[in-house]
Amino acid sequence: MREVISTDQAPQAIGTYSQAIRTGNTVYLSGQIGLVPETMELKEGEIDARIHQVFQNLSAVCQAAGGTLQDIAKLNIFLTDMSHFATVNEIMAQYFQQPYPARAAVAVKQLPKNTDVEMDGVMVLSSY
């Protein structure tokens, strides 16, 4: 059984996808970019502002599904410039505690809305 997860505390889907899908105790989180939910505009400023916004967006979807960022088992990070990898690590440490999720970070040529960072993940809920 698949359940659509949706919240107005994160950006609404801008394509043919759901914010997240829960199947059993597993939640598949769609990619989040640094969109501010209220305006649907990218967070202005340096990349660190958008990285924080991405984690806030992911957190909102996790909460809507009954979990938290700590329940993310696998996190995927997409960057248009790998020179920002250290910044991602610094900011990620503000949102996660050990044990950290499994993770991949890859460089990509381009992301939606020409942003510089996107993240998606898989969350496993302990009590569902």
From TrEMBL:
Pfam families recorded: Ribonuc_L-PSP
SUPFAM superfamilies registered for this protein in UniProt: YjgF-like
Similarity comment: Belongs to the RutC family.
Protein's name according to its UniProt entry: RidA family protein
Organism per entry: Thiomicrorhabdus heinhorstiae
InterPro entries (alphabetical): RidA (IPR006056), RidA_CS (IPR019897), RutC-like_sf (IPR035959), YjgF/YER057c/UK114 (IPR006175)
